[in-house]
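User: Predict structure, ligand zinc ion.
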Amino acid sequence: MNVVLKRILVGFGVVVFLLVVFGFTMLPSLVDQKLNAVRKYPPYEITSNTEEAYKAIPFVADLHADTLLWPRDLLKLQIRGHVDVPRLIKANVALQVFSMVTKSPLGQNINKTDGNKFDQITPLVFFQGWPRPTWSSLLQRALFQAKKLNDVAQKSDGILRILRTRADLQRYVKERKIRPKVTAGLLALEGAHALEGKLSNLDVLFKAGVRMIGIAHFFDNRMAGSAHGLQKGGLTSLGKRLLLRMEALNILVDLAHLSPKAIDGVLSMARRPVVVSHTGVQGTCPNARNLSDQQIKKIAKNGGLVGVGLWEEAVCGKDVMATAKAMRYVADLVGVQHVALGSDFDGTITAPFDVRGLPFLVEALQSLKFKKAEIHQIMGGNVLRLLMKTLPIR
Ligand SMILES: [Zn+2]
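Assistant: Predicted complex:
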């Protein structure tokens, strides 16, 4: 081998080595930091009046955060991203729904997303050092995230509870009155593609603690069309069987990201209330991912909840007032008992603040003339009521 060729090969080897080291040590956290940004970092200047109004909320709940996807020790207070256990405690959050994302095709967007494009979650889990089965299996990715949350709960010394049943929830609400510095998580799945086409995997996920499932995410799958898919079809026959099985197991159906046809399909079949875990509404922000008035009315009739998000694409505004206005719109249309918070924290959004900024939302709701009891409903009372009715009894 001549000397020049040898040098080139050595140089190439060094570059590859450095890239691999960078990938494993820094890449996932850099991606996390960049994609889960905030417009304003703490300390948050919250007036004492707002602080008081916020602290008076008996049960703060958020219907959607994608925190489990990211490289964070959830028991440690972090700077990047939006949610971890210390921040949930600081923000007096009683319940955070932790949703598990398993696939995100390259070029994903709210109008037209091709589910066959390169999946960006693959390098993310690879470079985070997730176990081998998660590199290729979407089900394993979900199960690994479920295990991650369970492990955090176990190591948390009772500070983080995982709610699986109505009995858990009742016990937790009682205990929280005596020990307020605790929080709870409920496991959800973002997209039934993680079932890998097998209904039997629903039982596997249920056993792992999953209690809410969004049937589609950004692309059409074998169960239903996505609002952002290529075909945007309705519920397939497999999707209909999934819905029946979910209802039998007491798993909540989440309509977020579903195509209008699939939303209609679910609402015409559902015998239990549904949720839209994170969304905006056409009335204040018309786009392909948001709910029409007609859809909101049907969801209200079903007894369901509309979880309004905290990001610009959902509410057509960069600050929290846009979220409050969308909540006002839903409340005026169908009643405050159907309004909830579905932040989409850690869902690759730029949020106005991390979870500790939630008092600003209360301030915005007050300025839109919501009464104290109504704010308590929106900030979590409605979620608590729904879960008391819908979680498996024990
Ligand atoms: Zn989402």
